[in-house]
Design goal:
This protein is an alpha/beta fold. It contains 16 helices and 15 strands. Strands 2-1-15 form a three-stranded mixed β-sheet. It has a three-stranded mixed β-sheet with strand order 3-4-5. A three-stranded mixed β-sheet has the order 6-7-8, sandwiched between helices. A hairpin with a 2-residue loop joins strand 12 and strand 13. The longest helix has 18 residues. It is globular, with a radius of gyration of 21 Å. The protein starts with a strand and ends in a 10-residue tail after the last helix.
Length: 446
């Protein structure tokens, strides 16, 4: 008998230091908006509005907290000394790039938070979590400790949930989390196929690799996570991302492909060996036939896919087929808008398209799919997790008021050195952990 399960989405709440520092080489949107003035309040409210719309449609919608930024412990580890205000001043004067890095609100993109394997796939039948080391970028490499604390606080029952530390923070095991991982299945409660997409094989110098931008995910990292999570061969497929796509600005696989249920929606440039990937999935997928929705370059040029983040949309299961939740930019790029109309007329697995305004996130290189971490949970697991982070109408109102109370409506790069900003952030996060019932997860609280 199939055990009932749901795919829950846990969105990252945008942090108070949301800013455009252009820290992510290889992320075209991030670099193109460098040093623009951001609006943290608007960004957080846009994210909450997206969560609310999906919760109102009946999806299980959770909230993951932002991280403490600027992260003074990282500055101390790099040799800055004195009071917190003095440390910020020193960093601003001598190393503004480092200050920008430890002030990044990039934890908002929780698709990078971790890799999650549902209990139906794992050898011990628990849900497994591995925080991503994100070691390709300094500003993200400092996230996994607090990410791990958050996940352990929310999914605390060891009878249902297993937590692993991040992989070694070296390039050979570069891990970017669920941005390079998706799961295909017939039913959420049945064993599925976990698709791990990597940019290069780190220990094989002769293997294909991008030449312009770095490959952030390695085959070795994906293999290690599959082992840690107790996945059998029948539950996993390893596929290499097309190096040409990485060099075109597709820094994660979720910028060029997204899957859910038995549907894989992807661009023809997504995989280095497309036919083998599809064959491997079909050989392992049970309970349903794979619905492969392939978008050609003639329909949507790769640069338009990157500009619009068409594939960084959320693919959501509905009783009538798949809903594609797209960023507003998809209707602003002509080829993408035409393709979406064609997609809806095709009577395929995608039966509805909805537009979401996440422009503040998009300007920094993250669409709707970047903002969420998917966790498949059985009914028992859903009850066993900490319920205080599940978005309800009441929690939405409390979080909206919290944002409006604590967030600035403008933030420029020079504001990051303001000691008042650090005080504002800590006060806000201390209150937030109380609202969400998470306990002490931040360094300043410990």
């Amino acid at each position: 008998m199939t055990r009932h399960a749901v795919e829950a989405n846990f969105d990252g709440l945008v942090g108070p230091t949301h800013n455009y520092a252009g820290l992510s080489w290889g992320n075209v949107a991030s670099k193109s908006n460098v040093n623009a003035v951001s609006n943290p309040r608007e960004a957080a409210l846009q994210g909450l509005a997206k969560m609310k719309r999906l919760a109102d449609r009946g999806y299980v919608q959770g909230v993951l907290p932002p991280h403490e930024r600027p992260h003074v412990p990282s500055l101390k580890a790099l040799g800055f000394r004195g009071t917190d205000a003095q440390i910020l001043e020193q960093a601003a004067e001598s190393s503004p790039a480092i200050l920008a890095a430890v002030s990044s609100a990039s934890s908002m993109w929780t698709a990078n938070a971790a890799t999650v394997s549902p209990s139906a796939d794992t050898s011990d039948h628990r849900v497994h979590f591995t925080p991503a080391n994100l070691n390709a970028k300094f500003h993200r490499s400092i996230e996994h400790t607090v990410t791990g604390r958050s996940l352990k606080s929310i999914f605390a029952d060891e009878g249902y949930f297993a937590h692993h530390p991040a992989l070694p923070s070296v390039s050979h095991f570069g891990d970017e989390g669920a941005a390079n991982h998706t799961r295909l299945c017939g039913h959420y409660g049945e064993p599925g196929v976990e698709l791990f997409v990597y940019g290069q094989a780190a220990f094989d110098e002769q293997a294909p690799a991008p030449v312009k931008y770095p490959a952030r995910q390695t085959l070795e990292a994906s293999q290690a996570i599959a082992r840690l999570h107790g996945l059998k061969d029948v539950n996993r497929v390893f596929a290499q991302q097309n190096p040409a796509a990485i060099d075109a600005g597709v820094f994660h696989n979720d910028v060029i492909a997204v899957g859910n249920g038995n549907t894989l929606f992807y661009h023809e440039m997504a995989f280095l060996n497309e036919e083998k990937v599809l064959t491997d999935i079909r050989a392992r997928l049970t309970g349903a036939e794979l619905e492969a929705v392939r978008v050609s370059s003639a329909e949507v040029p790769l640069e338009d896919a990157v500009a619009s983040y068409l594939f960084n949309s959320q693919l959501l299961n509905t009783p009538d087929g798949m809903l594609l939740a797209v960023p507003g930019e998809c209707r602003e790029v002509a080829s993408v808008s035409r393709y979406l109309d064609k997609l809806l007329a095709a009577n395929g697995p995608v039966t509805a398209v909805e537009v979401f305004d996440v422009k503040q996130s998009m300007r920094n290189g993250g669409g709707p799919a970047c903002l969420r971490l998917r966790v498949v949970l059985s009914d028992d697991e859903l009850q066993a997790m900490h319920r205080g982070v599940i978005l309800t109408g009441e929690l939405y109102e409390r979080l909206t008021l919290w944002v409006e109370t604590h967030y600035r409506d403008e933030l420029a790069r020079e504001d990051l050195a303001d000691p008042m900003l650090l005080d504002e952030v800590r006060k806000a996060l201390d209150e937030l952990t109380g609202i969400l019932g998470l306990g002490s997860i931040y360094d300043f609280q410990l």
